[in-house]
Structures are given as structure tokens and as C-alpha cells.
Amino acid sequence: MKKQTKAIRIQAERSQNREHSVPLYLTSSFTFESVEQGRAIFAEEEEGNIYSRYMNPNVDEFVDKMCMLENTEDGLAFASGMAANFAAIAALLKSGDHVVASKALFGSAIQILSKITPKWGITCTFVDGHDMDEWEKAIQPNTRFLFCESPSNPGLDLIDLEAIAQLKAKHNLILAVDNCFATPVIQTPADWGADLIIHSATKYIDGQGRVLGGVVCGREDLIKEIRFFARHTGPSMSPFNAWVLSKSLETIHLRMEKHCDNAYKLAQALEGNTALINVKYPFLSSHPQFELAKKQMKMGGAIMTIDVKGGFEAVNELSKHLKIASISPNLGDTRTIITHPASTTHSKLTLEQRAEVGITDGLVRIAVGLEALEDLIEDFEQALEKAAAFINKEEVV
Ligand SMILES: *Cc1c(COP(=O)(O)O)cnc(C)c1O
């Protein structure tokens, strides 16, 4: 069966009610037929549900679909993408271990690796993601973990997944890839050799801006260690969120095709707009890693960035004139969203940290939604015209 079919057809076991859509298992715990059965299930001699911090039919169904989509042996769901991120690091590393990570990471991932895990003696070196020599030079005898995001948020920098997987194999490390922007519809890092694939399910996996969720898929032995950590520290996904997310996976292929088509065409329409310094999108030939994008991504993704002439003031003016696009820190919604990373998601970084990953004051991330393309093009063009007029007037004064 094709993945599209499986994403629709994988289901928790049907109950005696013969329901078509999976019921919502809102229960904190499960019952045993006898104390002996409880003993056997706890001793792992018999399979069965125990408690929803450990497992739940809705959560398990969601994880089964994610592992199928990511081509991995096992997986685990979390309350949010950051809970997934943190659990993978905290479960697998110990004091004295070292991480090499790309600089172009989600803001909170940088905070974890630069401020939180160092408290427990886990250190991190940040490198320029596309420079493989930098990755290799940063590896120390105590390095255990490589962490990257491709395409990165918000800079849309790509990491050569084949090259980095070769590097981790050479040094016998664990490679974790945040696959949030691409989704498994566009790229499956496990096929290149990644050991762990991390997602914020809040984004395209939900796809409709409703619930938080996270997932780690990957090698069975590593997931086993993360599962031990998660079961006892409790960052579990709620059954309700799992039910929503599993339903969403039924349409992820369809949604991503339309998202990517809209994003590609909006990027083409805005490229060359005189109000902009540049437009960045992995499948535009002007993207510095266009060839790599074509190699490892089936489609260009749903995120593009524009760098607006005139910085913060111009972006602010643009935002006031957009009639359709929302202003929000989220992405991966049916609704087109603009985000100004310098003042929001990446505002906690220093100026130098922002400059290193190309987050200028004029940079706007556009998470292109599923509205009619013509409406989106018209909306951005008219708002950019007004932003440019505003800036020109300011300059005259
Ligand atoms: C949003 C996001 C996260 C964090 O996920 P949450 O579900 O908000 O905790 C991590 N990585 C990337 C790339 C993201 O976009």
C-alpha cells in the first residue's frame, strides 16, 4: 500500500461498537481483569494498556502513522515539539557529553542547548550548517550527538543530509534532524541515515493551527531510552491532541501539495518586487542551495521569506495593510501567516546570533496557507506597495 493509503487506513483496533472513525480514549488509566493480569502487564509478559502517561490507543495510532511516514522502526509522542526536542537530548546524553548543532535552529532549541543543558554539564558547539568542514572540526572525543534542522527556521538554510549522515557514521554519533518544515511528505531523513527525526506536530502535522504536539521517530534502541525518560518524567501527548493529529495525517499529502504549490508560485510572483531586498524559497533557482534542495526534497515546502527594504518600520507598515495574511508566531496552518522573527521567535538571540543566520530587521517569514493563490498574490502586492510608499515618504522627510 502507498503511504497516502496507510495514513488514512492505519487505525486503533475497532471496538465492539464497530465505529468507523476512531473513538477518543479520554481516560487517564486502564483496568485489569485481575491483579494477576496487572502483574503480568507491568512485568511486560503480557501486552496491554496501563496508564496514559505510558501509552494510550489514540497516541499509539498517531505514532504508528508517523513511523510509517518517516520510515522508522519506532517513535514516541510528546506534548509539544520542544518537549520532544528536550526529551531526546536529556534521555540520551549525560554530564560531560558534547553536542554539535547547526546555528540555524528553532529559537527554543538554541536556548535548550546554550542555556539549559549546560547546567547539567552537556555542552554544545554551534556551527555553520552548510559547511561540512565546520561540523567535522567541531567534533570532540566526547561528542555524542549531531543536531540540525533542514530547511531551517526561519532562514531556509539546508543541511546536506547525505553528507551529515556520512559524518555521523564515520564518528559513530547520533544524528537528530528536526524535520518540521519539510514534513515526511517532502523528505525522510531516516533514508539518508538520520537516527532520530524530531517534529513539532503543532505545525503541518496538525495543519490547522489547533493543538500542540511533538514526536520523535527513529532507531528502536534510542527510542527505548527516550521512552524510559518520558514515561517517568511525563511530557506525554494528550489523547485528544493525538486524535486530532491522527485525523490530520489523513490529509497531509493533499495539504502539503497545495501548500507547496501556493508557496512556490507566491515566491515566484514576489521575486523581483521593488519593495524587497530578496525572496528566499528552496525551489527558486536563486536559493544558494537550490541543487541540494532538488536532491533531497520532493517539493519546496510551504515557507518562504522576504527581506523588506526599510527594516522594522517597513515590515510594520506591511503588516497593517495585509488583509488576508495573519500576524502570528505559528506556521503550518491553512491560513497564511506572517512572522517577524527578529522581534518574536528569535528576539531572545543576540544581534550577532541573528546576523549569523540572516535574521535581519526586514526579514518576514511567510507560512503560505491554502487560500486561493490569486488572493494571496494580490494581498502581498498591495501591502508591499503601501509599505514602499511609506518608506519613501519617510526618507523624503
Ligand atoms: C515550532 C517549532 C518547534 C517547537 O515546537 P512546539 O510544538 O511549538 O513546541 C521546533 N522546531 C521547529 C522547526 C519549529 O518550527
From TrEMBL:
Cofactor(s) this protein cannot do without: pyridoxal 5'-phosphate
Coiled-coil features, chain-numbered ranges: none
Residue numbers carrying N6-(pyridoxal phosphate)lysine: 203
Pfam families the record matches: Cys_Met_Meta_PP (PF01053)
Record bears the keyword Transferase: yes
GO biological process, one term: homocysteine biosynthetic process
MF terms in GO: carbon-sulfur lyase activity; pyridoxal phosphate binding; transferase activity, transferring alkyl or aryl (other than methyl) groups
Pathway the protein contributes to: Amino-acid biosynthesis; L-methionine biosynthesis via de novo pathway; L-homocysteine from O-succinyl-L-homoserine: step 1/1
Record's keyword terms, sorted: Amino-acid biosynthesis, Methionine biosynthesis, Pyridoxal phosphate, Transferase
Family: Belongs to the trans-sulfuration enzymes family. MetZ subfamily.
Assembly with partners or alone: Homotetramer.
Function description: Catalyzes the formation of L-homocysteine from O-succinyl-L-homoserine (OSHS) and hydrogen sulfide.
Stated name of the protein: O-succinylhomoserine sulfhydrylase
Source organism: Pseudarcicella hirudinis
Lineage: Bacteria, Pseudomonadati, Bacteroidota, Cytophagia, Cytophagales
Gene name per UniProt: metZ
